Amino acid sequence: MMIADKSLLNLLPARSKRSRKGDNGIVLVVGGSKIYHGAPLLTSLAAFRSGVDLVYLAVPKSISIPIRAYTPNIIVLPLPDDKLTIGSVNRLISMLPRHIDAAAIGMGLSINKDALLRLIKELHYLKIKLVLDASALIPDILSIVNRDDILTPHAGEFKRIFGIDASDADTIKEFAKKYNTTILFKSYIDIISDGEKVGFNKTHNCSMTVGGTGDILAGITAALLAKGLAPFDAALLAAFINGSAGDLAYSKLGLHVLATDIIENISLVMKEYDKIID
After folding, report:
1. Three-state DSSP state, 198
2. Which residues contact 132 (CB under 8 A, 6 or more apart)?
3. What stretches of 75-124 adopt beta strand conformation (E)?
4. pTM of the predicted model, to two decimals?
5. What are 5-48's pLDDT values in tens digits?
6. Three-state SS at 195
7. Are the beta carbons of 172 and 193 closer than 8 angstroms?
8. Residue 62 lies in domain
9. What gap in Å lies between CA 157 and CA 6, rounded to an integer?
């Protein structure tokens, strides 16, 4: 059993002073719909603040222009349909760069089940590690998830995907082992398991009920996967970083925190453990 604390930040890899763009992680985010543009944007910004070099954001064309207007940092890939369709998946695969380390899928996404499964299979074929969140958490994915994937359900999503309530850590561990994947169960105390190890994160506060904190967690988790951390370590450390950034935002703003305030504090949690090597 592990309790998340600052020592986990020692897992962050050192950065070579000679590194080039892309050497420190490339993340893909797939999300959004005609109504929900903010969720995948928050995920993308959180991944960037976690120290990756590039973030590609695939969203419906109908929301791509306002997202591009919000920030010049993200590379936006417009998809032809307002929901994830087979056509959108085919278009996305044709647009992808040569290399991506990790992807976060599901935030604000309106899905077609077959299209989601097709996307997951295509990204697995490309050896991309996955964070599956929100709309991507449906029972159908359980037959294709693998050891490099992380599922990030809250209580309602856990019941939707597994069919039972998540009552304790033993339940989380049991299903992680059964489906050979890592589960990051979001709750008052986060529970993380890869079917062998179990970890707990107690770092957060009640201002983090604001919308978007789960999207931020997905972005941090994908960034840590992209940096080469093992799924269990990435999930446990991401929960700690997310909660710690939320605590810093709370210390400044009290119960008036926005999701973007949490993102701006990610770097303050992580920078003390930045390491640069020759």
Report:
1. strand
2. 105, 106, 120, 141, 145, 149, 150, 151, 152
3. 75-79, 102-105
4. 0.98
5. 999 999 999 999 999 999 999 999 999 999 999 999 999 999 99
6. coil
7. yes
8. 2-277
9. 29
